[in-house]
């Protein structure tokens, strides 16, 4: 009875609460009506809704609209469009006032529907789509497209970035949020850049990064994007960031290689830093520091727990109870600076490295180093002077170079930096300062410089007497520096210095190999880890290309075998071929479409269309003949070119020398190389050249020709089948040479007539081989400035 009483007593309270929540939520639902927000009616079409949405988005985008409520209004517009653009969601909203999978948007007091009742969101403590929660967690790291391109990408060459891709309606993002927050707190303190991209607001940036799913986590280093494909666990994310860093950033140093490591300062032109610690693995903080300062300092790590490092610990008197960092410059026996602390923080290490990132006397190996050592003068109190020694890398310069280093180590002036260059490696810079005109290397010389602008203008003074490293040289340089402190005007020369050569620039081949390796690694990574649904378009493209290639090879193989089987019977029939039949010596990629050869006479009427305005890629093959040789040559010409009539880019014509002999001579005069024709006649007995049987391949668009010169082979094999006048007809403007089945045998002629006909007939014996070379493009080409007019150059009949 008591239990029933308690239930009865609490029931009114539940009813009141539910009615209160219901009333508030119904009011909220009316406030967020997507039709009212977009300003459209319930009968509006999708095209109208989309048009209004685009206009409102441009108007209320937070980057363009700086009003206080612009961001909230933008969110409402986006969510309203998501509902109305989806027919299923729109139908559910029209029926029930809300969609099943759509949560309220805007401020945190908006409710959500459950079993036809609206409950306040705070009643369930749902974290998604809560603007206040999102601002607290991710707004600090929110990235925009311009910010990513202008800030993150350049900065990724100094530190890696870990970026999360999320959205307001991502349920899976809620599960990884605790791990993400913990990892961010740890890695950000170590120097890792953090970013968050909300797909709802930065769709362009998400597409640029290649992130098509939420949640996604990716890393950016050296401008390259790498996706995280493992379970979202703190250890996995930490290892992912560590794997982003290049290999061999930090060298393991023991008693065996310490001398080699420290003495490489001269070749690398960098200070060397040694970190002593008791952990066997290089700490991530130290790796990140090495990546940030990789252009300035070489890093090494000493594991104090190894027996192979006992001599190093003893030599430098290392305290094993706390991490110790030593920096070495030109001296390898004594560190230039030292720091030791139990909780070594990033800020302490950065300050330590920044104060020691240059040698005492570094070599100028590129323009970047020159700009940092000798900055441009900005105002009077920040004058910076650079004492530059121009020397050589031979052994004879060693004493002077060492003396210059000794002098620089005693310098106490903060406004003076010392540096040197090798004349052989920075020739253009040295020639301007030394003002040398011959190739003889001058003795070492010291200059005092002050840079005036980034373009390369400097004021300088040469220290008289050269530099041999003697006490007198040191005293002269010291006097000049003291004078400079009192009177900067002693720098009485000015010059424009060129940009320095990058002595450490890698070869083009090496850079190409590294780039190719990065692309291949990225492709393999995508294949191994990407969703197969996303890979389907790529796989479909690859298999389609392979199928087409395989099908082409199979079809070509079968077609070649069938052509080989038919070639033998065609060769046997070739000796009996009549006009227009294919010759045994010619092949073509396309079979002939007709059983005859269409040959057009080249006259003043057909000249323009068949040559001058011939389409690009097309050629006109022109046979040169006379009235007397017309029938015989056309018959042989048709037989030789028949197998090439399948080509759509070849046209066939003939030119009558009895009508247009002057045009032929003028054309060959333009192409002077084609006029190298051997003749055996003397100058006094020289006759006019006979062009009968010549064949010209004319390219009207590119203005060049290929020339076939007739060669009489003396073969008598075809004497039994002499062609007579009926082989091809050239009357009128068009002449057709029929196939061998269309023409009956000719009547016999007297022997003298037959012999002359036979010789003319054999002038085109090699034309088939010449046509094959023409199709292959291996014939010599004779270019002309322009085509001579056929109507103006006409010889007497």
Descriptive overview:
Strand 8, helix 14 and strand 9 (298-303) form a beta-alpha-beta unit. The chain starts with a helix and ends in a 14-residue tail after the last strand. The chain is extended and about 110 Å long. The chain has 27 helices and 23 strands. The longest helix has 42 residues, at 532-573. It is α/β, with parallel strands linked by helices and 797 residues long. The model is unreliable at 1-30, 100-136, 566-589, 677-686, 715-755 and 792-797 (pLDDT under 50). The strands form five sheets. It has a seven-stranded mixed sheet with strand order 22-17-19-18-20-21-23. A five-stranded mixed sheet has the order 7-9-8-10-11. Residues 1-24 form the signal peptide. Keywords: Autophagy, Glycoprotein, Signal.
Give a brief description:
With 797 residues, the protein is an alpha/beta fold. The chain contains 27 helices and 23 strands. Residues 561-593, 716-758 are annotated as: Disordered.
Fraction in beta strands: 15-25%
Helix vs. strand class: alpha/beta
Rg over CA atoms: 44 Å
How many strand units? 23
Q: Which residue ranges are poorly predicted, with pLDDT under 50 across at least 5 consecutive positions? A: 1-30, 100-136, 566-589, 677-686, 715-755, 792-797
Q: Mean pLDDT, nearest integer?
A: 76
Secondary structure tally, helices:
27
State the distance separating the first and last CA atoms.
137 Å
Largest sheet: 7 strands, mixed
> Which range best describes the helical content: under 10%, 10-25%, 25-40%, 40-55%, 55-70% or over 70%?
40-55%
| Shape, per Cα inertia axes | extended
Q: Please list the strands of the largest sheet in the order they lie side by side.
A: 22-17-19-18-20-21-23
């Amino acid at each position: 009875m008591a239990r029933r009483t308690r239930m009865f007593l609490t029931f009114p309270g539940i009813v009141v609460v539910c009615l209160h929540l219901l009333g508030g939520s119904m009011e909220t639902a009316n406030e967020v009506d997507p039709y009212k927000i977009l300003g459209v009616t319930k009968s509006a079409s999708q095209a109208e809704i989309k048009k209004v949405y685009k206009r409102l988005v441009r108007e209320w985008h937070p980057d363009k609209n700086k009003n206080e409520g612009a961001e909230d209004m933008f969110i409402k517009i986006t969510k309203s469009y998501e509902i109305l653009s989806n027919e299923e969601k729109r139908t559910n909203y029209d029926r029930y006032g809300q969609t099943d999978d759509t949560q309220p948007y805007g401020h945190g007091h908006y409710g959500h529907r459950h079993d036809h009742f609206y409950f306040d969101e705070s009643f369930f403590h749902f974290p998604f789509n809560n603007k206040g929660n999102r601002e607290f967690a991710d707004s600090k790291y929110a990235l925009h497209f311009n910010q990513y391109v202008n800030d993150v990408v350049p900065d990724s060459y100094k530190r890696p970035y870990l970026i999360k891709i999320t959205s307001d309606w991502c349920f899976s993002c809620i599960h990884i949020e605790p791990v993400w927050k913990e990892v961010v707190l740890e890695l950000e303190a170590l120097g890792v850049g953090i970013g968050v991209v909300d797909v709802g607001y930065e769709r362009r940036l998400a597409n640029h990064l290649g992130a098509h799913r939420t949640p996604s986590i990716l890393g950016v280093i050296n401008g390259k994007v790498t996706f995280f494909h493992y379970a979202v666990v703190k250890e996995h994310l930490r290892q992912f960031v560590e794997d982003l860093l290049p290999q061999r950033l930090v060298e393991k140093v023991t008693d065996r290689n310490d001398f080699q490591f420290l003495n490489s300062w001269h070749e690398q032109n960098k200070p060397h830093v040694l970190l002593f610690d008791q952990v066997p693995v290089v700490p991530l903080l130290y790796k990140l520091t090495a990546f940030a300062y990789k252009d300035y300092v070489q890093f090494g790590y000493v594991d104090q727990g190894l027996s192979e490092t006992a001599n190093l610990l003893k030599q430098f008197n290392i305290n094993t109870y706390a991490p110790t960092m030593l920096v070495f410059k030109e001296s390898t026996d004594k560190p230039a600076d030292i720091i030791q602390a139990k909780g070594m923080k990033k800020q302490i290490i950065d300050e330590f490295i920044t104060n020691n990132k240059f040698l005492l006397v570094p070599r100028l190996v590129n323009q970047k180093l020159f700009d940092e050592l000798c900055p441009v003068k900005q105002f009077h109190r920040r004058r910076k002077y650079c004492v530059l020694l121009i020397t050589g890398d031979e052994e004879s310069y060693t004493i002077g170079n060492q003396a210059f280093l000794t002098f620089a180590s005693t310098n106490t002036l903060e406004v003076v930096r010392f540096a040197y260059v090798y004349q052989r490696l920075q020739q253009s810079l040295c020639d301007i300062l030394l003002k040398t005109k011959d190739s003889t290397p001058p003795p070492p010389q010291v200059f005092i410089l002050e840079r005036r602008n980034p373009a390369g203008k400097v004021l300088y003074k040469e220290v008289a007497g050269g530099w041999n490293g003697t006490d007198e040289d040191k005293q002269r340089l010291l006097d000049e520096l003291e004078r400079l402190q009192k009177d900067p005007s002693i720098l009485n020369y000015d010059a424009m210095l060129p940009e320095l050569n990058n002595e450490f620039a890698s070869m083009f081949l090496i850079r190409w190999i590294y780039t190719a390796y990065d692309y291949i690694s990225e492709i393999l990574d995508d294949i191994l880890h990407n969703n197969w649904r996303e890979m389907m378009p790529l796989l479909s493209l690859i298999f389609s290309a392979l199928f087409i290639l395989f099908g082409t090879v199979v079809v070509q193989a079968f077609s070649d075998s069938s052509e080989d089987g038919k070639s033998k019977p065609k060769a046997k029939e070739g000796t009996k071929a009549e006009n227009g039949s294919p010759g045994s010596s010619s092949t073509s990629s396309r079979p002939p479409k007709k059983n005859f050869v269409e040959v057009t006479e080249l006259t003043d009427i057909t000249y323009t269309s068949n040559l001058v305005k011939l389409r690009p890629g097309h050629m006109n093959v022109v046979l040169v003949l006379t009235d007397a040789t017309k029938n015989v040559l056309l018959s042989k010409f048709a037989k030789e070119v028949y197998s090439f009539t399948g080509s759509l880019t070849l046209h066939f014509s003939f030119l009558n020398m009895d009508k247009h002999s002057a045009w032929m001579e003028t054309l060959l005069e333009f192409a002077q190389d084609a006029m190298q024709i051997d003749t055996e006649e003397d100058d006094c007995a020289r006759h006019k050249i006979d062009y009968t049987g010549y064949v010209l391949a004319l390219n009207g668009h590119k203005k060049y020709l290929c020339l076939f010169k007739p060669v009489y082979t003396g073969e008598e094999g075809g004497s039994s089948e002499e062609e007579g006048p009926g082989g091809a007809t050239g009357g009128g403007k068009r002449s057709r040479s029929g196939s061998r089945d269309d023409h009956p045998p000719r009547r016999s002629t007297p022997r003298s007539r037959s012999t002359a006909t036979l010789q003319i007939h054999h002038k085109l014996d090699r034309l088939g081989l010449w046509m094959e070379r023409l199709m292959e493009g291996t014939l010599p080409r004779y270019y002309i400035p322009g085509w001579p007019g056929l109507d103006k150059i006409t010889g007497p009949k």
